[in-house]
Target: Phenylacetate-coenzyme A ligase
Amino acid sequence: MNFQYWNSEIEKMPRQDLEALQVKKLKAAVDQALKTPFYKERLTGAGIKSGDDIKTLSDLRKIPYTTKHDLRDGFPYGFLSIPKEEVVRLHASSGTTGAPTTIYFNAGDIKRWTGYVARCIYGTGCNKTDVFQNMITYGLFTGGLGFHQGGEEVGMLVIPSGSGNTTRQFRLMQDFGTTVVHATPSFLLHVESKMKEEGVSRDSIKLRKAFAGAEPYSEDTRRRIEELLKIDVYNSYGLSEMNGPGVAFECQCKSGLHLWEDGYIGEIIDPDTLEPLPDGQTGELVLTCLCREATPILRYRTRDLSSFYTDACACGRTHRRLRRITGRTDDMLIINGVNVFPSQIEEVVMAMKEVGNNYLIVLEKEGVLDRLIVKVEVGANVFMDDSRLLNALKEKIRKTLQAMITINPKVELHESGALPVSEGKAKRVQDNRPKDV
Amino acid sequence: MNFQYWNSEIEKMPRQDLEALQVKKLKAAVDQALKTPFYKERLTGAGIKSGDDIKTLSDLRKIPYTTKHDLRDGFPYGFLSIPKEEVVRLHASSGTTGAPTTIYFNAGDIKRWTGYVARCIYGTGCNKTDVFQNMITYGLFTGGLGFHQGGEEVGMLVIPSGSGNTTRQFRLMQDFGTTVVHATPSFLLHVESKMKEEGVSRDSIKLRKAFAGAEPYSEDTRRRIEELLKIDVYNSYGLSEMNGPGVAFECQCKSGLHLWEDGYIGEIIDPDTLEPLPDGQTGELVLTCLCREATPILRYRTRDLSSFYTDACACGRTHRRLRRITGRTDDMLIINGVNVFPSQIEEVVMAMKEVGNNYLIVLEKEGVLDRLIVKVEVGANVFMDDSRLLNALKEKIRKTLQAMITINPKVELHESGALPVSEGKAKRVQDNRPKDV
Model:
């Protein structure tokens, strides 16, 4: 494979140099953080009075963690390190959980962020001959403008189509020969279903690649999208607290997401003991932003669960790779005392050929017990009147799920297209259990 | 008044120099246009083989007009003058009338466009201390990204809030001390009504200015928004064929929109004879783009009706000012043989204090005759049970309209908030007459 690098020197930098660069940038980030009301108190409380108190990378551990809760408490300007008139943009996330988080950027911050996204896109083999349709919400959400800027930086023809309006999306793909799209995995599956439904032939579009992110998804979902649409799907990871997209991305090897360690320091910690874990072990991802001046955030507990690969990547990049996010510490469901991640259910369901492109997890209370109901759309090729086949499929899903999560779920089958589709991040869990029981 | 100029040398350039600059840029634009399939045929057909065939500004008249119809016929690449791989973005407009128009940009085009929008914004007195909430759709529509880019270029804090979600818009204004917004005039009126309805006090927001565009509106609507929200409203003019916003804009004198003549050549023509009209006379605006390489468009018939002011502007800018667009050649309604522009109806309705923030024009067929129904929301301070007062108001509207347009309309009064609100461009006319009678 012919790998291409946006910034070869940085991407293949020897680890030692990369870590020296991190220390240098971390010193600057600490100095910058000390200009914010929040970190002035938090860091001096931990005995850190200047960036010079950081001598080696292991001094990172002297810095206390920052949580989502801290960000909310610091609203609106507790994390702002520069005069307001130097700010050129803010992005705010309502998040998948809870109240908004606001991140401020100066002009240099936007430029650096754009560079990281361009690096991600270019690393998947895209170049200025590509036509890139950005099928995601523009505005306060970072996914739209973030990918837009990165795509233009690479020199692709960017179509700012935004989310939704599936029929118009096909038309744009056909009219302009779109080769790459960016979307949530659930929207990609929806697009495929709709194409079938409206009789749009695969040959009428030139699509070759998709960047999928903004919601966790399983390897089986990736494979399903790749097979159905006959494209390469690249996994994208980012979060608004760390600018948005451009934090970690798959290269053409598609085996883990390179965390851009010249821009972010990544750690995996045990979410209970808060102790750092060695590479290879799964825990909560903690990120320190090294590439943003206006809103410094140090050792941010992302609540995303992942681990670092320990082997080298065939692409030659030295930046460590994250395993796909399997869930968040706070989207874990406790069902009759058993811990279940929605991603475990997705993995089972999306691996089955007979299953369609959408599913929904519903939780209810039956007396004192929790009841897990998994609603699954059947594939377009399954006849809804073949009850023997349907019962067999239902039983197969139930058994495989039970083997995976130890809970015995109720499985419901639905016709293709019957379950609700969201245009932004998919809502896969409906927890109808009363809150205070 | 202290005027400020983004580019003083250009904005106050003596007319003679400005026209020499136009000739120079027009030569280049013609050369660029000759690289497109459409203009290669059209220009050589008119005897123009190179930019050198343009010697003076009056040679412009040798160039045939380009129409919306031509743009559609040239879809998708008939107007593209550069290799596809040099294109970094496209914007497409579904337009207020008819099928999509596509404009391609290279990186330099985006940069130049951004400069013109920044010039507009800065000329209204904004600077980097301002907080700018861009309450308009992002994506394929040029209004969102165009103002976003210009706002960042000026160094304002840009909040990419997008359109809709009125309650969230207030919250953002309150949280971040928004001083300037961009929106359609109808959305601004809707915001004001909603503020009253939800009890949001004017003192809780710091708003000082609004840029209003994307749909024509009357001077009375401007005054109404200014009085209700206690802000300055600046009139913005642009169209996707000429990049989008940034074509013409009001300065702090608010007496006409300076057309940026170093980027665009403006002419007013008689839409019937197609002969150019002298400054001061009203006709169809024809624009030639001098600031875009990827998609050259020469002598484009905008179908917008306007005229040039003949006096100098107090601000010292030498670029001629356009009168606010009073309508489009193609949105003229023919009612029982009489020509009526929706703007004439708006002017009457919005001038009345007793009238609320929304209205709708409905056309129906009664036998062989057209029937004009004007539905008007009453102000929040008018009691809907005071039938004597309501009847008097109805009669007043009816009479004033009849005096203005010679048609006797049926007037209907509705409660505040009862008529439909659109989040993008307002739909003010519902023509229910059968098409082929």
Remarks:
- Chain B has eleven helices and 20 strands.
